[in-house]
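for the writeup, i need someone to sanity check this before i put it in the appendix. the sequnce is what the collaborator sent (i think, or maybe the updated version? ugh). structure was predicted straight from it, no edits. if anything looks off just tell me and ill rerun, i have time this weekend
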Amino acid sequence: MGTVVRLLGPPRVLGADLPVPRGRKPWALLALLLTSTGPVPRSRVLELLFPDAEDPQAALRWTLSQARRAVGAALTVGGDPLTCEIAADVRVDVRDVLAGRAPAGWPLGEATLPLLEGAEPDVPEFAAWLHGRRQTLAVAGARLQRAHRRGTPASRVAVRELVRVGEQVMDAGAARDGTAILRGAVERARGLGDDVVLAEALAHYGRAYVHAVASTDPRAIAALREADRLATREGRAEVAGLARRELGFVATATGDQTGALRMLARAEAAAADLPDDLAAVAYGRGFALVDTDGSAHAEAQLDKAVAMTGGRDRPRAHAAALAMRGRARLATGDDEGAAADVDAARALATELDWTPMRPWIDSLHGEVLLRAGRAREAATVLADARTLAEVVGDACWVALTSRGLAAAQARLGTPREAAASLATATETLVADADVCCWIELHLRDTLCSITAEFDPARASRQAEYLHGRAVATGLTMYASRARPRIMS
């Protein structure tokens, strides 16, 4: 085997005895050059990798020297603008993927691994670029895999491999492409005539769609219901439990807390004594109970979810449980406990490079800063979080970060401007039926609070509407907050 430069997954060079570069930016520089369509101006590299360096030119020179040591004669890096030339006998995985070329010296199954997995420099400007490039590569990698497997007869293995690839593409943040692959897995499973593998594909497709694309999509909800029915009939309790948990999520997102708890009870029955599934049920219950009459029980459920995921190899589940418990603690005024949870969730999300989840966790961090009287820091965090939410394309995260940013702006002395921007965000984003119900009420509650500072009559009208919505959906904490603002 000749020399192979691997940038998908953990970056490394195969087939050559070369030193490991110091730091992460040499690999980031190589990824930038090798996935770009042409030469890259040095000014662009400085913007993405060294925005805060005291001497960015010197930092770039040092990084270039480290990158050259890491790849030896396999690549020639230099010039202004910067280029990266590949030696004749060398293969580079990202170039193979982007060209739609069959891999040589590395496995086709790794074509959808994340770019620079575990080696991402902690620079927000580069993180936004990396997220977009990962989406592009994930889609191209999935296309490459399909092209080289086309004509392969449907089988359990083939369907499950499609599910795996689809979820990898989802993890890269390419939600619609990932769900398209998972939909293809469902179609192949139907042709196979195997209800077990069909139930699996339906459950994973439905879960991906309701979380990343549209929580009220009728086809995705129907897929989850069919998965539950088939899995129950075939004795696959873990698949039935997954489908029921996701149907519980849909009910919570649409403001049907009673239906959510009923569905989660069915999921718990299917979980039996499976720790991961029981942790997921506890998380779902905690999520459903926050902001309701049962909010006192939300933290207890999330305590279970945090404890059950913390000692297992489930870092994403643990980060999600910590973040949700942080939200529950903020709702009950436990600012100190919330800060500890949010800090832990932020550290995990950074370690995992879990970009699609960062806007949500950062919105909680912004709220913690606001509670601590650090409005200016909060505004900076929330502005960056909203930008990332827009890059990720998640309407719920855009709504939450817009709410937090408006709250910070009001604290900084511009309540009228903050209310105007939040009113626009509320009406625009709530028009999208797939913004979770609790998020809509969270925005309206904040809008009432800010507006009351300069227009109590208008705030009263807003509070009256909020009260009605909160009572109708069972999110009674918002009703309690709205009631004192309504003028008699």
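The longest helix spans residues 124-149. Strands lie at 4-6, 12-14, 75-78, 83-86, 91-92.
thx in advance!!
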